[in-house]
Amino acid sequence: MGGHEGAESPVGLDDWHLASRELIEALRGKRTGAQLSRRLGYRTNVVADWEAGRRFPTAEELLRVCARVGIDVAAAFEGFHPATAEHLKLPADLRAPDAVPDLSPWLRALRGRSPIGLIAERAGCSRYAVGRWLKGQTRPRLPDFLRLVDAMTDRVSDLAAGLVPIEQLPTLQRRHGRRAAARELAFEYPDSEAILRLMETDAYRALPRHEPGVLARALGLEEAHEAEVLTALEHAGIVELRAGRYRAREPLTVDTSGPALDRLRAHWTRAALQRLPARRDGDWLGYNLMSMSQQDLERVREILRDTYRQIRALAAASEPVEEAALLNLQLVTFAVDGGEGAGPC
């Protein structure tokens, strides 16, 4: 979520420039700029210009740099966003001087159905520029690529950390560290995510001071559990008590992917189930049992994935923050076991 009271200032364009310079320096490592420039096929020390911020490579050129220094680019993108990694168009040999990767299909997949205007507003650039980047008509320079991906995911530092050690990127490291702490807490205290979202609402921010139990009552929790979660969030540096109310130190989008994700899915599925006998106005709990072709079922999956990405982008930029909500999406398939000789389902 962005721009809420008590949050630290968002990353500005100068910060994206600095983060880009840090990333290039980290990729260069112990080589000189002239050495790396020659390995990339340049006759001049273009890497020195990049590090000084006099100009910047395109995002595609940065991928060539990564490949040249031995980084598995495909693996980094797969780790960052598995659902869209297949859309990354890389040449067979990314290290070749004439290699031309194409990031626009991946950017379009990452965008999903999110409105270009919303993305442009979050990135702090024009709709025209965003549209051309997404269509592949122009190639974004590295600072623009970083802020564009961050506008669509709010966690570009996770992608950068997949390329170089995050400690070498001080401009992104602090927010990355807090996101990592929030991620650990999300697994230890699943309700911490919901408590953070409630803190962002106008209703909580309008309170003259924090009232013990006010967040617990909204979520159906024990007051003692609320206090335990708030203490953990405070110790992790994610929230602070200021002027009598808890506030997030900065906006965070937490990536909770990984092997332990099923525990969180189960937790929030149970939370939705507990609402069944006491639904509130605005709750929507539906189901549909259906049979269809495999091709149409795949279309349903893609619709759900696009819807999920679009809702996340919408929530990230939504103002004013008046409500906190839980979105649960499930698609479960059933197959008849035909016994020996049965074909694949």
How would you sum up this structure in a few lines?
This protein has helices spanning 13-28, 33-39, 46-52, 59-68, 73-80, 104-111, 116-123, 127-135, 142-153, 156-161, 170-188, 191-199, 202-205, 214-219, 223-235, 261-275, 294-317, and strands spanning 239-242, 245-248.
Helix count, per DSSP? Answer: 17
Give the helix proportion (percent range): 40-55%
Outline type = globular
Q: Could you give a short account of the major beta sheet?
A: 2 strands, antiparallel
Main sheet strand line-up? 1-2
Average pLDDT confidence is 87
Describe the structure.
The protein contains 17 helices and two strands. It has a domain at 13-171. Helix content is 52%, strand content 2%.
Spell out the blueprint of helices and strands.
Elements: H1 13-28, H2 33-39, H3 46-52, H4 59-68, H5 73-80, H6 104-111, H7 116-123, H8 127-135, H9 142-153, H10 156-161, H11 170-188, H12 191-199, H13 202-205, H14 214-219, H15 223-235, E1 239-242, E2 245-248, H16 261-275, H17 294-317
Antiparallel strand pairs: 1-2
Which terms summarize this structure?
single chain, 345 residues, mainly alpha, two-stranded antiparallel sheet, 17 helices, 52% helix, disordered N terminus
